[in-house]
Amino acid sequence: MVGPTRSGKTVLCRLLATQADFHHFEEPIGLWNIGKKGRKDDARDADEATPRVAHRIRTSMARRLAEVGARRWVDDLPHHALRIAFCLRVLPDARLIQVLRDGRESVPEMIGLWGADDSLRRVVTRKLAGRNWRSLHWPSLPGMALKWAGNQVSRRLLGRRRSWGPTVPGQVEFSRDRSIAQIAAFQWSVMATMSLDGVAQAPPEQVLTVRRENLLADPAGEAERIAAFVDTPAPPLRDLFTQRIGVGASPKLKAMRESVPPEVWDEILPIIAPVQARLGYA
Question: What is the Cα–Cα distance from 253 to 163, expressed in whole angstroms?
Fold first, then answer.
């Protein structure tokens, strides 16, 4: 799944993973960072996917699939939006489901999560729940722990994290003396732009675009499209989508979307406007 964060990729991954042969590996950042060079952001270029790096990633994937008894890998890592060419160099036959959502819905949720407290207990529970621990890249854990600690210190001293989600190109420079709302809007805009640009360079037969509003309006029809795209029987997926899409929306996330005051929208809208127009949400 590719696209900006807070677009709806996770729910699609979880539903798809209910089908035979699929397994959802939830945000396996350590695995996809194998061989990553030090840089300020989380983008990766195609030339970073050297034969050695690509082999290591594919080998790790194969081992994890064997451990869970699955044949097909599904993940919702938001970082893919910044590295589609890299991903396709690693997995040339990968199928990309691009998930799009109106930035006016995504950015308020991002603002709320930038300021949210992510306790150590919550992080550990999330990473180790079910079979998620199988997607961990153990050598990367010390770096992840340091990042979590830095965010905790920053949140207590400055009232916000040092980082949340993928760090996009230009974000470090842009973030200086900017509000959380502006940073979230910039982050979303760059992710959406890079995702669109990356998908445009991919073989068309390997890409399916899904819009969140279409999922909510016609979950059965969208399930049919996705099932055909990934070569899995449509009826069970169609029934699941009909039962679960749009059901049990988080009151916390709904409150985040409804709590943005007009003056904050004045900061957000000019930043996201160009990408909104490109996506057809102007």
Answer: 19
With b for 16 or more beta-carbon neighbours within 10 A and e for fewer, the 9-48 pattern comes to bbbbbebbbebeebbbbbbbbbbbbbebeeeeebbbeeeb
In the block, which residue shows the tokens 């060419």? 85
Reported as a single tens digit per residue, the pLDDT across 88-143 is 999 999 999 999 999 999 999 999 888 766 554 555 554 555 455 455 555 555 65
Q: How far apart (Å, rounded) are the C-alpha atoms in residues 123 and 144?
A: 11
Residue 14 near residue 99 (C-beta atoms within 8 A): no
What b-and-e string marks burial along 92-128, b requiring 16 or more CB atoms within 10 Å of the CB?
Answer: eeebbbbbbbbbebbbbbbbbbbeeeeeeeeeeeeee
**pLDDT for residue 122:** 54
* 223 phi and psi angles, rounded to 5 deg: -60, -40
**Entry field: residues in the chain:** 282
Query: 62: burial class by Cβ within 10 Å (0-12, 13-18, 19+)?
Result: exposed
- Indicate the SS3 state at residue 112: helix
CA–CA gap between residue 62 and residue 53 (Å, rounded)? 14
The token duo for 265 is 């929208």
pLDDT < 50 regions, the chain: 120, 126, 130, 133, 148
